[in-house]
Amino acid sequence: MEHYYRELVGFLSARLGSRQAAEDVAHDAYLRVLERTDAERIEHPRAFLYRTALNLVVDRHRRYQVRQAEPLEVLDSDERWHTAAPAHDLQLDQRLALMQRALDELSKVCRDCFLLRKLDGLSHPQIAEHLGISRSMVEKHIVNAMKHCRLRMREWES
């Protein structure tokens, strides 16, 4: 199924108008497909992957619409925006520590690909050039890192 990646990114880029957004949706789509819990075999993997990606695009669009519709006065009057909830901060710190622990389990190149993409916002070609590896290896490392971190976070939080 990995050989559909570039094709999917091209397809999504045309719809989203941004290669970076397309790569993010493609990563999420791959993760959703890889993390399926039912053992049922996918009859048409390409179609399933595309449908998953399009569903994610629709979800992304809906979230954007909701954010745009939120009146600014709500933010001013909402107490959550003015005071930090200590329990929430603690939970966030714990989750960040677990995420760091999961990232530490990855190989250096896998971790670097993930961090350059997610923290520095570099594109796949930029990461490939920076690390001296192929774009397809960058794509595989990022998908593997995301999958590993999600699995470990679920495991540790349950």
From TrEMBL:
UniProt-listed Gene3D superfamilies: 1.10.1740.10, Winged helix-like DNA-binding domain superfamily/Winged helix DNA-binding domain
Pfam families the UniProt entry points to: Sigma70_r2, Sigma70_r4_2
InterPro entries: RNA_pol_sigma-70-like, RNA_pol_sigma-70_dom, RNA_pol_sigma70_r2, RNA_pol_sigma70_r4_t2, RNA_pol_sigma_r2, RNA_pol_sigma_r3/r4-like, WH-like_DNA-bd_sf
Keywords: Sigma factor, Transcription, Transcription regulation
Recorded superkingdom: Bacteria
Domain RNA polymerase sigma-70 region per the UniProt entry, residue ranges: 2-65
Start and end residues of each RNA polymerase sigma factor 70 region 4 type domain: 98-149
PANTHER family: RNA POLYMERASE ECF-TYPE SIGMA FACTO, RNA POLYMERASE SIGMA FACTOR FECI-RELATED
Family assignment from sequence similarity: Belongs to the sigma-70 factor family. ECF subfamily.
Protein name: RNA polymerase ECF-type sigma factor
